[in-house]
Amino acid sequence: MDAQAPSLTVAIPNRHAERRWLPTAWSGLLIVILAFLVLYPTAMLLIGALTTTNPVVEGYHFADLSISNFLTVATNPNVGNALANSMIACGGGTIVAVLIGLSFAWVVVRTNTPCKGLIASAGMLPLFVPPLVAGVAWSILGSPKTGLLNLLAAKAGIPFHIDLYTMPGMIFVFGIYYAPYVYMFTAAALKNMDPSLEEAAEISGASALRTMATVTFPLILPAIISGMLLSFVVMLGIYGVPAVLGAPANISLLTTYIFALTAWSPPLYNTAAAVAVILMIVTGFLVWMQQKVLSGRSYTTVAGKAFRPRPLNLGPWRFLTLALAIVYLIVVVILPSIALLIAAFRKFLFIRDIPSLFDAKQYGWQHFIKMFDNPLTITSIINSMKVGVITAIVGGILAFAIGYTVTRSRAPWRRTIDIITTIPVAIPGLVIGVAYLWAWIGLPIGIYGTLWILAFAFVARFMPDTVKVLSTSLMQIHRELEEAAWICGRGTVGTITSIVLPLARPGVVAAMTLLFILAIRELGSSLFLYSSGTMVMAVQLLGYYEGGNIGITAAFSLVQMVLLGILITITNRISRGATPTGPVRTG
Amino acid sequence: MSAELRVENLRKVFPPTKGTPLAKAAIDDVSFTIAAGEIVVLLGPSGCGKTTTLRCVAGLEHPTSGRIAIGGTMYTDPQAGVLVPPRARNLGMVFQSYAVWPHMTVRQNVAYPLKARGVKRSEQAGFIEEALSLVELSAYTDRPVTQLSGGQMQRVALARSMVYQPQILLLDEPLSNLDAQLRLRLRDDLRRIIKRVGLTALYVTHDQQEAVVLGDRIGVMRDGLLLQLAAPDELYNRPADIFVAGFTGASNVIAGRLVSRDGARGDVAVAGETLIVRLAGDTAAGSAVSVALRPDNVLLEPANAGPNQFPGRVTSRNYQGTQTVYEVNLLGQTIEALEVGSSIRHAVGDAVTVALPAEVCWGYGA
User: Fold this and answer.
1) Does the distance separating the beta carbons of A486 and B87 come in below 8 Å?
2) In which residue ranges of chain B is CATH 2.40.50.140 found?
3) B163: Cβ–Cβ under 8 A, 6 or more apart, which residues?
């Protein structure tokens, strides 16, 4: 090349020496942000559990910190009762979920049941239904007096009666809606299992049943336990289902009990904090167990190559498995949808006889019109969208910064940052709500009562999932692509904007839309953080339900489901191939 | 624009990790100088420290101690607190994975370093054209790189690394991801292109053939040590170390004891016979030695009688078409002999006279 070209050298070497504090400053900044989002609220929650002062009236006092305050609450029989109820409901729900999820996984992965693909994808639908909506739909179907199923059975003269306002009712609804978690774990394990392991057992003389009991089942046991623990943890943090199904029968779970404490007059913030801490401890323990099961006991049956599992030929029995799958789909997807549609469009939910169910004169838009006459409806939708956007942007940027720092940079304290980021995994949404309440309600100037506190709580709550999605897509970018840009003369920031961000875009978009969707459907933490001016959709729906108007409740549920459906479709469009693969804690 | 590279007493110790509880030196006191316009190849098995050395020169790794100067300017000197980041070193680098950016076209890839240097748009085109014509990719300027073959991608990477006339070109196993045929062609192209531009180049590989064809000098590394840095023919004919001898193909090793020495000539006692060898080091008489020689230097049934000839017996034959490898039992051990040509001259069980020419029998202290 010709030598008298314009000078192509860059920069004077020396100016870089004085900027070596920068990585340290950057890590420090991230830790400060994480402390603000995660550590400070958690610490305030713990302090709240150890005091008896009311933060609203008296501000924060740290003088009377004592474990005895916490013990008083922990030994209260009502708390014990709520804890026991939670364990029974979630434990029962988990058993149902495992039975359904495991058989579904087996049917889809290992048998020649027709329409397997359809069953598999339809089986995941319950994951997208907000628990409150599920609760509302099932209360329309199965309330003891006015439940549609009970009414229709009576009119048709069938001796059938169900009452979902009971513990078994909650267990049933929990079980059918959280079966997909167990399904996801066990189906993956079944798919990744080397079929020759089973063939070896059969060649050794074991019958098909014996093979299943002695080889297949033990091999996927870690996956089953892991899925079981995860679904238990998620159920434990759910507010919507027990609020709708448990409240009429006075069955308190930890979540509904915590909220009731703050709704009393005067609100018992300290007690709520203490119960929230109990919930957090139980959740933390279970999450820790799940991590242990996932890391330690899982057998390496995955060799990194895809196996084609040998499907079992069920013969004519395959139609029985198909029928069972269809029954599940009817129960989980179709019945609740019909219930919501009927309740939303029918003038009166009372059904005189079967023909009147199909009488067009009984149907109309009146509930929707009434719903939109209430200004709070529109306000809550707009607020939810705003919070969703803020959460997606703030959370997306922060998660990218954390993911990049932890997976790609050489900045100091990366491990610390990683650990703080993972903490919210063990904190149910409702507990985050109480923690943020404690953190901000006593401060005269602050973010309490604004949309920002909701957004910050959501960012903190969903941080582990978002960072995981982003880190996965960052790790797929070969290191040398970045190094090549440095060699070419670009600095860190220039390399990130010109190389890393464009290449990680599908992951970034997936993470941000995921955040948006999770934020607009989040109920647990919103309950404690909304104010009259910052009403959000999920809370407004609960308001309609508690107001007793089932028509408007159903109509608003439909509106939310349609909105969510549209958003999820858009998400799948723009981030095709980059959607998160792991299960996300929702609810 | 090419410059001299000096590496002095380079040492890199990785902190202990779970897998390796003891801190181990990845590079141990490596020093060498590459003259401006010279191509030096670092050759060695994986884990020998050759890539770490290259990455230290690039500024992608920070050495524990030692100094790296390019064109007289100190770029790395941890003791003096000098660690210039890669972006300010004005080096070109070709990566093992090509590292061409998949979201850009060929032109955008090659233009990237020019943009980073603030070269005016109007001036960029000339540089880009020149670089792409050098690697014969002018016809592909506006293609997305994802539509290129592996060999073409590697040439984009080469164009990108040279377009800004770097002081030094670093190449990290650039051919290892290509299939065998393409590797041969690009190997020859690479040397031609680098020589035409006149760049100083540091090239890292584990492939001896590549090293011999590409390098003006070859440095053989093992366990973080630079064992020998020499011209290819010297490396092959006068290996300084038993490992270098083995790595360049001297796979026959005969163990014996040095009886006497006279300068570089030594008499080695092996199984009651005396083997005349050339000594590489200052091994003292009486000590154990290993004698290395290449299978192709072993002569079966030599035409003339001479020293270093011993009776042997063929124990196996491996016919490979254009050459035949025999295993021969002599001096109480088995050694390999390679005969070029498509004809088979000996059968298993044949008694043969074996000549081990003294000038290619290299003795090293064991």
Assistant:
1) yes
2) 250-365
3) B110, B111, B113, B114, B127, B128, B130, B131
| CB of A10 less than 8 A from some CB of B | yes
B130 to A2, B99, B137, B187: CA distances (angstroms) = 10, 21, 10, 21
How far apart are alpha carbons A549 and A547 in whole angstroms? 6
What's the burial of A547, exposed, middle or buried (CB within 10 Å: 0-12/13-18/19+)?
exposed
Query: What integer pLDDT is reported at residue A303 of this predicted model?
Result: 44
At residue A5, the pLDDT reads: 41
CB-based contact B130 A1, cutoff 8 Å = yes
pLDDT at B18: 61
Chain B partners within 8 Å of A12 (Cβ) = 88
List of chain A residues with pLDDT < 50: 1-7, 9-18, 298, 300-305, 577-583, 587
Query: Quick one: which of A253, A257, A262, A216 has its CA closest to A48?
Result: A262
Q: Do B99 and A483 touch (CB under 8 A)?
A: yes
Q: Where in chain B is the domain with CATH 3.40.50.300?
A: 5-242
* Spatial distance between the Cα atoms of A179 and A577, rounded to a whole number of angstroms: 24
pLDDT at position B283 is 83
What CATH number should be reported for the domain whose range is B250-365? 2.40.50.140
Chain A partners within 8 Å of B60 (Cβ): 483, 486-487
Q: How many residues does chain A have?
A: 587
Residue ranges covered by each domain of chain A:
23-49+77-308+319-574
CB-based contact B290:B335 (threshold 8 Å): no
For A453-466, b where at least 16 C-beta lie within 10 A, e where not — what string? bbbbbbbbbbbbbb
- Residues of B within 8 A of A487 (CB-CB) are 58, 60, 86-87, 89, 91-93, 161
Cis peptide before A77 (omega within 30 of 0): no
Query: A184: burial class by Cβ within 10 Å (0-12, 13-18, 19+)?
Result: buried
Q: Which fold has domain A23-49+77-308+319-574?
A: MetI-like fold (1.10.3720)
A48-53 contacts at long range (C-beta below 8 A, 24 or more positions apart): A48/A269, A48/A270, A48/A272, A48/A273, A48/A274, A48/A434, A48/A438, A49/A73, A49/A270, A49/A273, A49/A274, A49/A276, A49/A277, A51/A270, A52/A270, A53/A270
Show pLDDT as tens, one digit a residue, over chain B (366 residues).
689 999 999 999 987 766 666 677 899 999 999 999 999 999 999 889 999 999 999 999 889 999 999 998 999 999 988 888 888 899 999 999 889 999 899 999 999 999 998 889 899 999 999 999 999 999 999 999 988 998 899 999 999 999 999 999 999 999 988 888 888 888 888 999 999 999 999 999 999 889 999 999 999 999 999 999 999 999 988 888 899 998 888 889 999 999 988 888 899 999 888 999 998 878 888 889 999 989 999 999 888 888 889 999 999 999 999 999 999 998 888 999 999 989 888 999 999 999 999 888 999 987
Query: How is domain B5-242 classified at the architecture level of CATH?
Result: 3-Layer(aba) Sandwich (3.40)
Nearest to A108 by CA among A325, A406, A422: A325
Q: If 0-12 CB within 10 Å is exposed, 13-18 middle and 19+ buried, where does residue A112 land?
A: middle
- The string of DSSP codes covering A331-366 is IIIIHHHHHHHHHHHBS-S---SHHHHT-GGGB-SH
ipTM of the complex: 0.81
Tell me the CB-side half-sphere exposure of residue B77, using CA atoms within 13 A.
12
| 3 state SS of A55 | helix
Q: Count H helices, E strands: chain A?
A: 29, 0
What is the per-residue pLDDT for A549? Answer: 87
A449 token code pair: 């009562």
**How close does chain B come to A488, measured CA to CA in Å?**
5
Shortest CB distance from B60 goes to which of A17, A483, A490?
A483
